[in-house]
């Protein structure tokens, strides 16, 4: 395939960015999107030009590092896949592909296509954990009976990889889908009950303090989420928040 890439280049957080055109040829359908960018970067390095900076780590849909807005969609045109799992067979010979960083005030650009998503870490640190006795006399987790439906829903919520596509997809740059997945994975389990009240209040406060927008139930986050995190988690978090506010 021969393609034209239009890529956001930005020197650093304080510089203005712009779209730059890069023609590329010899791209195979079996290549991943990131492998296609590797080919481009090799060519740029060979020409003495600066390679395009983009985030990646596992390249198998687990770590949540890869984060590209491709033709206006977080993680591109395929469904339930991350950018690293997106194959070039989703595109046609002669296509022009727009590649931008995830856009949100709370995700400032570091360089080119790499953004700072540490706001997610701070939301997680505000309450996304359970305090457990690590004395060596802990009860085996499997000894606590958990209703199958709750166990399944908690597991589904825990598959959120913190990629930020939900924020990038949202017209309000809301982080409700991410935060609600992190709240839900504990709210559904007995181990999460002890700190449940403080957890939801602290995580929602941190989310607001980071500058994410409000949820207006548009649902774009659920559609673009590579892990299929359900909007039901947002409804659950709202219930948890209301109940915690009444107790507090
Ligand atoms: S909810 Fe989905 S889109 Fe949002 S951070 Fe988690 S995995 Fe990514
Ligand atoms: S590089 Fe880890 S999910 Fe894409």
Explained architecture:
The chain folds into two domains: 3-111, Beta-grasp domain (Ubiquitin-like (UB roll)), CATH 3.10.20.30; 117-247, Orthogonal Bundle (Fumarate Reductase Iron-sulfur Protein, Chain B, domain 2), CATH 1.10.1060. It is elongated. The model has no long low-confidence stretch (mean pLDDT 96). It starts with a strand and ends with a helix. The strands form two sheets. Strands 2-1-5-3-4 form a five-stranded mixed β-sheet. Strands 6-7 form a two-stranded antiparallel sheet. With 248 residues, it is an alpha+beta fold. It has helices at 33-46, 118-127, 148-158, 165-169, 176-187, 196-209, 220-224, 232-247, and strands at 3-9, 18-24, 68-70, 73-74, 96-101, 109-111, 114-115. Helix 2 (118-127) runs antiparallel to helix 6 (196-209), helix 3 runs antiparallel to helix 5 (176-187) and helix 5 crosses helix 8 (232-247). The structure holds iron/sulfur cluster and FE2/S2 (inorganic) cluster. FE2/S2 (inorganic) cluster is lined by residues 56-59, 61-66, 82-84. Belongs to the succinate dehydrogenase/fumarate reductase iron-sulfur protein family. InterPro entries: 2Fe-2S_ferredoxin-like_sf, 2Fe2S_fd_BS, 4Fe4S_Fe-S-bd, Beta-grasp_dom_sf, Helical_ferredxn, SDH/FRD_Iron-Sulfur, Succ_DH/fum_Rdtase_N. This is Succinate dehydrogenase / fumarate reductase iron-sulfur subunit. Its cofactor is [2Fe-2S] cluster; [3Fe-4S] cluster. GO terms for molecular function: 2 iron, 2 sulfur cluster binding; electron transfer activity.
* Bound compounds: iron/sulfur cluster, FE2/S2 (inorganic) cluster
Q: Give the class-level CATH name of the largest domain.
A: Mainly Alpha
Fraction of helical residues: 25-40%
Give the tally of structural domains. Answer: 2
What value does the average pLDDT take? 96
Strand content bin: 5-15%
| β-strand number | 7
InterPro entries: 2Fe-2S_ferredoxin-like_sf, 2Fe2S_fd_BS, 4Fe4S_Fe-S-bd, Beta-grasp_dom_sf, Helical_ferredxn, SDH/FRD_Iron-Sulfur, Succ_DH/fum_Rdtase_N
GO molecular function: 2 iron, 2 sulfur cluster binding; electron transfer activity
Pfam families: Fer2_3, Fer4_8
Family: Belongs to the succinate dehydrogenase/fumarate reductase iron-sulfur protein family.
């Amino acid at each position: 395939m021969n393609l034209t890439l239009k890529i956001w280049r930005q020197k650093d957080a304080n510089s203005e960015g712009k779209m730059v055109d890069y023609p590329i040829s010899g791209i195979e359908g079996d290549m991943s999107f990131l492998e296609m960018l590797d080919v481009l970067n090799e060519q740029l390095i060979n020409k003495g030009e600066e390679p395009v900076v983009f985030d990646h780590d596992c390249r198998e849909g687990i770590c949540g590092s890869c984060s590209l807005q491709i033709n206006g969609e977080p993680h591109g045109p395929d469904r339930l896949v991350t950018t690293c799992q997106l194959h070039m067979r989703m595109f046609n010979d002669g296509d022009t592909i727009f590649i931008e960083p995830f856009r949100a005030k709370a995700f400032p650009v570091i360089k080119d296509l790499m953004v700072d998503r540490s706001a997610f870490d701070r939301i997680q640190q505000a309450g996304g954990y359970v305090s457990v006795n690590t004395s060596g006399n802990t009860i085996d987790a499997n000894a606590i009976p958990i209703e199958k439906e709750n166990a399944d829903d908690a597991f589904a919520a825990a598959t959120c990889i913190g990629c930020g596509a939900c924020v990038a997809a949202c017209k309000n740059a809301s982080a409700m889908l991410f935060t609600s997945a992190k709240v839900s994975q504990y709210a559904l389990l007995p181990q999460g009950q002890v700190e449940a009240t403080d957890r939801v209040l602290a995580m929602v406060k941190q989310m607001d303090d980071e500058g994410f927008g409000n949820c207006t139930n548009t649902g774009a986050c659920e559609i673009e989420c590579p892990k299929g995190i359900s909007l039901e988690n947002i409804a659950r978090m709202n219930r948890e928040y209301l109940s915690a506010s009444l107790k507090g």
